């Protein structure tokens, strides 16, 4: 895969994380060229590990592109880069309204281009392992999903807590419920707190809890079944703990690779498959991407999303 030339649009806080991963993959000979694009000359001048730096994405000639710019720019950038023949990994959200997201997805289909959306925790090894254990029946029938993301810091943004901290939880609730559409949803949102309750047709319930100015930092997913439960702490550990019959067993996962690296490798692998004429697919599938946007729109926070912390 060393022939890969990857472009990165945006070198803000999250773009820098992507650039670090790309540099690591270049050292491992999984890509051979990195181009960074940002309209901010000062930000671009601080980038030291790119092979090429551009102020305008219209001049970019690469195999694939990662879009890590502010959310409101994602859709138009994606459409422009799809038209110029690039496969894309777009940070979430894909767009800030359903119509724009549909346009991007339709264009990707028309142009035969790969479209990845940055649903990062779907690549978390502990989360993937938990899904496998549930499928094996280790905790019996899944009854409930709880996602907690709470921080000691204040919310210094202008946006509600759910839009900042709860997007992964909304996506993962549907992921663990078999990619189902909830039959009913309840959202309670404020600047410092957010609570979302979902009810799925299989009898599974989900609750997403977000809060700023909390007494401690919490990042936790609890999956409760008829015969036990699984607990994942995605910010701390790639592993998980399995609770059955009053006993807890920690299941480590090695090597403990960060989800952002796994996501980028998955994107590169799908690009390689596509170039070789093998079967390939978008990630997540378009149905999952649109479902998440519909739920966010229903909550009234779709246009308020910025990159969650």
List the helices and strands and how they pair.
Blueprint: E1 5-9, H1 13-27, E2 33-37, H2 41-45, E3 52-54, E4 64-67, H3 74-83, E5 87-90, H4 98-111, E6 115-117, H5 125-135, E7 142-150, H6 161-165, H7 167-176, E8 184-189, E9 193-199, E10 205-211, E11 218-225, E12 229-232, E13 240-244, E14 247-251, H8 259-275, H9 286-298
Parallel strand pairs: 1-2, 1-4, 2-3, 4-5, 5-6, 7-10
Antiparallel strand pairs: 7-11, 8-9, 9-10, 11-12, 12-13, 13-14
Taken together, the total number of domains comes to 2
Question: Which regions contain 5 or more consecutive residues with pLDDT less than 50?
Answer: none
As a percent range, the share of strand residues is 15-25%
Note the overall shape. Answer: globular
CATH class of the largest domain: Alpha Beta
Give helix % range.
25-40%
Radius of gyration: 20 Å
Structural class: alpha/beta
Distance between the termini: 31 Å
CATH homologous superfamily title of the largest domain: NAD(P)-binding Rossmann-like Domain
- String of helices and strands: EHEHEEHEHEHEHHEEEEEEEHH
Number of DSSP E strands: 14
Numbering strands along the chain, what is their spatial order in the largest sheet?
Answer: 8-9-10-7-11-12-13-14
Instruction: Give the name of the CATH architecture of the largest domain.
Output: 3-Layer(aba) Sandwich
